[in-house]
Amino acid sequence: MTAHTPIPQDFNVVPTETEVVIVGGGIIGACTALQLAQRGIPVTLFEKGSIGEEQSSRNWGWVRKMGRDIREMPLMIHAMKLWDELPGIIGADVGFRRQGITYFCDEEKDMGKYEAWMKAMEPFGLDTHFVQRQRVNELAPGNTRNFAGGLHTPSDGYAEPHLAARAIAEGARRLGARIVEGCAVRGFETESGRVTEVVTEKGRIKCRTVVLAGGIWSSLFARNQNVKVPQLKMLSQTMRTRPIENGPLGCGSGKGFGYRKRNDGGYNVGMRSAHAVDIVPDSFRFFKDYLPAMKNEIKAMKFRVGQRTWQETMMLGGWKLDQRTPFETYRIMRPVPGHKILDQATINIKKLFPQFKDMVVNERMSAWIDVTPDAIPTISQVDAIPGFYISTGYSGHGFGIAPAAGQLMAELITGDTPHVDPTPFRHSRFIDGSKIVHWPIGF
Ligand SMILES: Cc1cc2nc3c(=O)[nH]c(=O)nc-3n(C[C@H](O)[C@H](O)[C@H](O)COP(=O)(O)OP(=O)(O)OC[C@H]3O[C@@H](n4cnc5c(N)ncnc54)[C@H](O)[C@@H]3O)c2cc1C
Question: Among 1, 49, 71, 212, which is most exposed with the fewest C-beta within 10 angstroms?
Answer without folding.
Answer: 1
